[in-house]
Amino acid sequence: MYEGVVQSLIDELGMLPGIGPKSAQRIAFHLLAADPADVKRLAHALLEVKEKVRFCRICGNVAAEDECRICRDQRRDPHVICVVEEPKDVVAIERTREFRGRYHVLGGAISPIDGVGPDDLRIRELMTRLADGQVTELILATDPNLEGEATATYLARLVKPMDLTVTRLASGLPVGGDLEYADEVTLGRAFEGRRLLDV
Amino acid sequence: MVLYRDEGVVLRTQKLGEADRIVTILTKRTGKVRGVARGVRKTTSRFGARLEPFSHIDLQLHTGRTLDVVTQVETIRPYGEALVADYPRYTAGTAMLETADRLTVGEKEPALRQFLLLVGGLRTLVEGGHEARLVLDAFFLRSLAVAGYAPALAECARCGAEAVRAFAIVAGGVVCGTCRPQGAAVPAAETIALMIALLRGDWPAADASESRHRVECSGLVAAYLQWHLEHGIRSLRHVEREPAHPSAQFPHGSRT
Ligand SMILES: [Zn+2]
Ligand SMILES: [Zn+2]
């Protein structure tokens, strides 16, 4: 244990995802030794992200304004929506440069054992977006693991009465993994070879 | 560090750090085991898919200071693959996993009968020969029986009289007119008969039951199960009875 403020910094850092007590200690001492101006910039960025970043009212992605950059971009194809679990999946897919349509971020995947059902995700908002008939293809890019597959099955069944092409990213994505860890080439290939979902 | 090998069904997985998972497995010989699977969320992982919930696996672990570490996994049957393609069966299966997890309280306490029930339940669910909710209710009733909580269904839970009238959770099953506590449910005789059929594994009788008796049976079984577990089964709320028409829930959902 360290004295007062040092220990509370270590405790706070240790609560971040993927940071164990050892890493928290290393980061804390790095900050102690760092230039005060650098630390100020970091502190400022932390505060600013909470103050300024919101979630896009259309797609649920992180946004600096009411609507995100992608939703405001008129060059993006409004006929195709790619459904993902988290904003970080948008980043992963954007890196592939394979996709020119729009996104819809669910905010997670259906996981009954964790108490997360369809009503806890942004599915109602998706249905509202699909209601005007402009969208012709829905790409289900939920994670290639069990919860992601179950969520895709649920969505495919939900939109079945609509006149939509529903596709799922091609296999080739390693099952059981997180979408964000797929490399650009694999993810790009999965996009090209997406298959029709028929439930 | 001791190496051991067993077969088991993956009950649940939780993210750990950047790329690892904690996997809870109900094994045949060792009972419930919690182990770390390193790197499984990376797309290069050797056994990511094999350690998904519902997977029936052959695995090797070595004992660790806090958690055991999974070192080898071979798939026996990947029940999850079949289940995710059918949402009502998937949700029923999820409730099975959660119940098996909750009923096996201690780690590394052998629970062979619960393991066999789970494997049998998942197999029946995947084969698709019976309504998913019936399979789930049968699993609930038999799991309760294995845990020592079988409800009395043939004679009064309190006095053993044969003329039963009501179902009282607090009394432990059906009760006669004299023993009946206030507020006891009075289900149809066919509903009690269905519960008996499910507990015994009499599928011809269960399959022949009417929808309203199945619904009543599910209600009683769920209430009875949740009463015996300290906290409710979370996934039960999300179990779908049969392929409904969910677009009806979303008035804006269909193109008219
Ligand atoms: Zn947006
Ligand atoms: Zn009695």
Total count of strands of chain B:
7
- CATH homologous superfamily classification of the largest domain in chain B: Recombination protein O, C-terminal domain
- What is the succession of H and E elements of chain B? EEEEEHHHHEEHHH
The main pleated sheet of chain A reads as: 5 strands, mixed
Rg of chain A, nearest Å: 20 Å
Name the ligand types.
Answer: zinc ion
Largest interface: A-B, 40 and 43 residues
Q: Supply the number of structural domains of chain A.
A: 2
Number of helices of chain B: 7
Q: Could you say which overall geometry of chain B the principal axes of the C-alpha atoms support?
A: elongated
Q: Strand fraction band of chain A?
A: 5-15%
Sequence of strands across the biggest β-sheet of chain A = 4-3-5-6-7
Mean pLDDT of chain A: 89
The radius of gyration over CA of chain B amounts to: 20 Å
Structural class by sheet pairing and helices of chain A: alpha/beta
Could you say how many structural domains of chain B there are in total? 2
- State the low-pLDDT regions of chain B, or none: 244-256
CATH C-level name of the largest domain in chain A: Alpha Beta
What's the architecture of the largest domain in chain A, going by CATH?
Answer: 3-Layer(aba) Sandwich
CATH class value of the largest domain in chain B: Mainly Alpha
CATH-derived topology of the largest domain in chain A: Dna Topoisomerase Vi A Subunit, Chain: A, domain 2
